[in-house]
Amino acid sequence: MNYGNPLSSLKMTSKTSGMDDFPKGLCEWSWKENKLFELALAVVDENHPERWEIVAAMVGGEKSAGEVQEQYESLLEDLNLIESGKLDHELGVGEAHTCVLINSIESLCLSDRDSSM
Question: How far apart are CA 39 and CA 50, in angstroms?
């Protein structure tokens, strides 16, 4: 199978103005890097022998092949946890929640009951 180089025909344009400032405090990947990572996973064949090197280059070249592979494996673990039903991610049916930005890197969500205290 001829894999070719997906980078050769891909023209990247930035339509994320202002998103480069997305807080990195809770993770080591910026919003833009995550979006480029998603795109790279969509276009690079999973059986390509240099998959992780190509994905790393498409993310911007600041991440190593090992780092992008670790990110992928971490996302797979998260997905498996969510799909297994072991993750309680519901905030409550019918409750309104207020989110407050704290120190530009953390947010705090309060239910109506919490915010009335």
Answer: 16
pTM of the model: 0.54
Which domains does the chain possess?
19-84 (1.10.10.60), 92-117 (no CATH)
Per-residue model confidence as pLDDT tens digits over 83-106:
888 766 565 555 555 555 555 555
SS (H, E, C) 46-95: CCCCCHHHHHHHHHCCCCCHHHHHHHHHHHHHHHHHHHHCCCCCCCCCCC
Q: CB-based contacts of 39: which residues, under 8 Å, 6+ apart?
A: 58
Residue 34 to residue 23: CA distance in whole angstroms: 13
Question: How far apart are the C-alpha atoms of 36 and 60, rounded to whole Å?
Answer: 8
Tokens coding 63: 């991440």
Q: What is the mean pLDDT of residues 24-37?
A: 77
pLDDT(18) > 90: no
